[in-house]
Design goal:
This protein has about 400 residues and is an alpha+beta fold. The chain has one domain: Cytochrome p450 (Orthogonal Bundle). The chain is built from 14 helices and twelve strands. A hairpin with an 8-residue loop joins strand 10 and strand 11. Helix 8 crosses helix 9 and helix 12 packs across helix 14. The chain is globular. It starts with 19 loop residues before the first helix and ends in an 8-residue tail after the last strand. The relative contact order is 0.18.
Length: about 400
């Protein structure tokens, strides 16, 4: 079936938000929709929860390589990013990298992450108008990642965070903090810095991510300094985008649903459920692409080897056959089998637990302050079909009376 109506490959179709009504229409149709983007690439659209899960778990047929991006413009590094790899190389890198994201290591971050969130809350409460997207939603995950990696000094952390900001665009070139040339320079600076830090940790191990990665073994192999530098550089960028988008979208959802915010303030036991519902309701990364390696079939539709598929997470997380009243924001929703971090299989986001921790602690700390938060201008969405995020969100606190100390 050829694509009519909304062109999901056109970022302008997402200017006013995710086209949920069109996704609902696609889910109700039989089979799959086939579409062609502006660059001439053909894709099969997977929009139902079951179909996205099936493709995510069948990694022999639905391959990440050469890229999970739908556009060649979005893959500019030419480097072997872990998310663009398949087994056996992906398995090797993931097994080694996961040692830095064990439950024990993530749990050990709770105290420092809470400290970062509390400091940001105090600074925001005593200031004037600020940009929630830039000053909190982006700064929080960057500082947390710097803590996880083990960047040794405040000056180095500030430098690495600034370089990372220059490399980010969230799929929207208008978001960039600098020119494409400066973004390339910043990427090179990050690679050089992390390569040097890896060398330091080889000589003087610490209790940080770099030391854990360097000490890990998988089938007798270990990560080299260049691999760790690339992993850290990728982590600083990609690892901040999910939390950034979840925070901006989550706060807007809570401000739009005051009954849910009031319930959260009254009962902190709702924080875990609110965290999961924000991740489902917002779905930071709208989609990922897959290369079809062998003839297969999804939803009764034959798909041939060499074709490509787009896994629309934003649609799958609103599938009415899985979620009751899926367009409703409900922090008590249970069960909540969202696939924001992937539909299962070996490519589920390695930083899932860290992203959940950041969002959970933010909600716990900010819940009493959010009722006093007000928009001072319209939020500006990122002009992209890849990230569901807001690049500018001017706000201020009317009052901090009643806020927890």
């Amino acid at each position: 079936m050829t694509a009519p109506g909304t062109d999901l490959m056109d970022p302008q179709a997402f200017t006013d938000g995710i086209p949920y009504a069109y996704f609902r229409e696609l889910r109700a149709r039989k089979g799959l929709l086939r579409a062609t983007d502006a660059e001439g690439y053909d894709f099969w659209y997977l929009v139902r929860h079951a179909d996205v899960v099936a493709a995510s778990r069948d990694t022999e047929v639905f391959r990440n390589s050469p890229s999970t991006m739908t556009s060649v413009r979005q893959d500019s590094t030419g480097l072997p990013l872990i998310s663009f790899l398949d087994a056996p190389e992906h398995t090797r890198l993931r097994k080694l990298a996961f040692k830095g994201f064990t439950p024990a290591r993530i749990a050990a971050l709770e105290r420092p992450v809470r400290g970062i969130v509390e400091r940001m809350a105090e600074e925001a409460a005593h200031g004037d108008e600020f940009d929630f997207a830039e000053d909190i939603a982006m700064q929080l995950p960057l500082e947390v990642l710097a803590e996880l990696i083990g960047i040794p000094s405040p000056a180095d952390r500030a430098m690495v965070i600034e370089w990372t900001r220059h490399t980010l665009n969230l799929g929207d070139t208008a978001y960039r903090h600098s020119s494409p040339e400066k973004a390339v320079d910043a990427f090179r600076n990050l690679m050089a810095y992390f390569g040097e830090l890896a060398g330091q940790r080889m000589r003087d191990p610490r209790d940080d991510l770099f030391s854990v990665l360097l000490s890990g073994r998988y089938k007798g192999e270990r990560l080299g300094p260049e691999e760790i530098a690339l992993f850290a550089t990728t982590l600083m960028g990609a690892g901040s985008e999910t939390t950034y988008s979840s925070l901006t979208g989550g706060v807007l959802a809570l401000l739009d649903h005051r009954d849910q915010l009031d319930a959260l303030r009254a009962d902190r036991g709702l924080v875990p459920g609110a965290t999961e519902e924000i991740l489902r309701y917002v779905t930071p990364a709208t989609h990922f692409a897959r290369q079809v390696a062998a003839d297969t079939e999804i939803a009764g539709q034959p798909i041939r080897a060499g074709e490509r598929a787009v896994l629309w997470l934003s649609s799958a997380n609103r599938d009415e056959t899985v979620f009751a009243d899926p367009d409703r924001f409900d922090i008590t929703r249970s069960p909540n089998p969202h696939i924001t971090f992937g539909g299962g299989g070996p490519h589920v986001c390695i930083g899932k637990a860290l992203a959940v921790l950041e969002l959970r602690l933010f909600l716990d700390v900010f819940a009493d302050r959010l009722p006093a938060l007000e928009l001072t201008g319209p939020p500006v969405r990122t002009a992209t079909n890849f990230m569901n995020s807001t690049r500018h969100m001017p706000v201020r606190f009317r009052s901090t009376t009643g806020a927890r100390s």
